[in-house]
Amino acid sequence: QTKDKKPSVSLKRRSRSKKKSFKRLAIAICLLLIIILYTPSRQWLFQSLLENDEASNDDNLPASPLDTITAVPAGDSSANGGVSVNHITPIDEKCEFRVYDPPRHYNLDLNGSLETQPAFLSDAKYVRGMLPIIINPGREGIKKVCMDTSEWEPMDSENNQRWPFSDGQNPSFVSLRDDPYAIGDGGASSNIRPRIDRNTLTGLTEIYGADAVQTMYIGLVLFGDSQCRWNMTPAQLHEQGYSSWQKARSVRTMVVIMDSDRNLIGKAVLELVQDSSWGTKRKKIPRKMRADGVADDSSCTMEGKENDGCFDRSIQQLDDPRFFFHGGSLHVLFRNGPSFGYEAQVQHPVHIKAIGDGKFEAYIKASEMFEVCCGRNIAFISEIPGQPKDEVENPNTTNDELLALTWVDPVTVEVIKTPTTASSSITAASQKSIQRRLRKNKKVKSHIHGTNGYLLPLHSTSELLGVAHFHRPEDRDPNPYARVGHHYTHAFFTIQRKEEGTTVDGDTSPKFVLKRLSNEFIFESPSKNTSDGDIIQFASGLDLVGSDTEGKLLVSYGINDCESASIFLNMDYVQGLLREVKDGDEVINMMAEIKSAL
Question: Which residue in 111, 112, 171, 107 sits closest to 143, CA to CA?
Answer without folding.
Answer: 171
